[in-house]
Write a structure and sequence with these properties.
- By secondary structure, the chain is mainly alpha-helical.
- It has 14 helices and two strands.
- It has a two-stranded antiparallel sheet with strand order 1-2.
- A hairpin with a 2-residue loop joins strand 1 and strand 2.
- Helix 3 (56-81) packs parallel to helix 8 (185-203), helix 4 crosses helix 11 and helix 9 (205-215) crosses helix 11.
- The radius of gyration is 20 Å and the shape is globular.
- The two termini are 20 Å apart.
Amino acid sequence: MNSVESDALEPTRDELQGMSFAQKLIRLVPVYGLVILTVFLIILFSVLLPNTFPTILNLRAIVSDKSIIALLSLAAMIPMVAGRIDLTVGYGIVLWHILAISLQTLYGFPWPVAVVTVIGLGALTGLFNGFLVEIAKIDAFIATLGTGTVLYALALWHTGGRQVVGVLPDGFYALNGTFVFGLPITGFYVLGITIFLWILLEFTSVGRFLYAIGANQKAAALNGIPTRKYVVGAFIASGSLTALTGVLLASKLRIGQASVGLEFLLPALVGAFLGSTTIKPGRVNVWGTIVGVIILAVGISGIQQFGGSFWVEPLFNGATLLIAIGIAGYAQRKKGSGR
C-alpha cells in the first residue's frame, strides 16, 4: 500500500483560475466529494427525521459511540502513511481495555499508573510489530495479524472467558464520562489528537519523510531518509494510540471482556481507507480519515433511526470499505497516469 504525493489529484490555484464555476465544481468533486456527501446525508436525515436526528442528544450519542472508532482509525492511519497496515488496532484494544481494569482491580495499581503501563505495553507491541516488518521483513499484514491474534489469545487467557469487574476510582471514570460544553470529553480527545497529527504530518519533516517512504521506500532511502527508524516509529505511535483508546474504552464500559473490541477493527480500517479518497485524494490524510469516520457515523445513525436491523451496521461498514478501496485504487491509477 503506497502513499502518494500531496498534490496528486488536487487542483492548483493556477488551474482553477481560468475555470467557470461549473468547471471548478466538477474539478473539486473528486477532492471533496466525500465531504459533500456527508453534508448531504446530514441534511437528508435532518429533514426526514426532524425530531430525532438534528438534536443534541443524537450528537452526544454519535460522539460517544464513534470516538473510539475515530481514535482507532487515526492509529491505523499512521502506519498507512508509510505504506504499511496495522491490524493490531482491532485486536490490541481487546487486551488493553481488559488490562486497564484488571491492573487496578486485581493488582492494586493506582489508575494513573495503570494507564501509563497499558500505553507503555501498547508502545512495546508497536515496537515488536516494527521489528517484524522492518528487521524480519515479514509482510505487515501477516505480521500484525499474527501479533493481534496473540494479543487476543492473551486476553482470553487472562480473563478465562469471564468479565473483569470491580469498583474503579472516580478519576478513571472521568476519563470518558466527563462532559465539556455539553459534549463527551472523548470528542475533544479526538479533536486534539487529530490537530496534533495533522500538524505533524503536514508541516514537519517527520510527515514528509513518512509520506516519502510510503510513496517509494527505496527512493526515500537513497535520499538519505532513515526509513527503518521512521517505519518502526509509526508502528510505535499506532500501538500507543491503540492502547490509549483501550483505556478510554475501559473507562466507558467499566468492565473488561474479551468479546468486546474486535467489532471496531472493520470500521476503523474503513475510516482510514476512506481518508485516502477525500481532501487529498490518493493520499492517506488526517482530515480525510475523520471525514470517513463521520460519514460512517452519520449513515449508520440515520439508518438505525429509520428502524434498520442489527445487521445494518456491519453491512454498511463492509460495503463502504469495498467502495473506499475501489476509490483509493482509482486515485492511485489517476496519479500513476500523471493526471
